[in-house]
Amino acid sequence: MSFGARRTTHLSRLLMAQRKKLGLRPGQVAALLGATNISRVGSLIGCFEVGEPITDQWLEKLINALRPDPEELRRCLELDQEEAEQQLEADRRAWEAWADEPMDAYVWVRYMPAVYGVRDVPKAFCNSREQAEGWASRELRRFRAKGYLQWTRREQTWFDQYGINPRRLPVTFENSRPIGGMQVGQSQRRFLLGSDGQVITGGYGLLQAGQSGSTA
Known about the structure:
five-stranded antiparallel sheet, elongated
């Protein structure tokens, strides 16, 4: 069996019911799994039971330790797989609709490690993608930075540091992922720096980027 980090609603409920049937608390199950940090792993199990993702490693161990009914296990796996496929298709349709919406071109800038910003491309340089790429290259060279031009939600041009070596990359549902937000401390809110130094906490998708581009 192979599981990635994912939400498994039916399976998590089955394993929670089995744990309670055995009269075990999450911390006791963590001990059965051989965890060195009982509190942390017990918390992980508790979070999984209420719908949070869990990794392949711990899910395998949970199933082996709790030994739920094989038929119920199979049924729950099938239900979770069916629902996951339905959710994936719904996410794909939503992304396609979002990607077709018009947007203003902008440049994502990596000023230094963990410090990112965005700069709107001036309308005067938006008559063609080539023109916008030239402006983006000059801006990145000015900041001695790397980054990319988001021309449309489906089209990006990535640049190395100093705005050199441009390469056009398509963005699809399969390779899109949010990148580029900064965080302070334990806060879950992400933000960017605007062209005049203002903090941006929304918009820009925070941000959708093709996986072929590197943010390192």
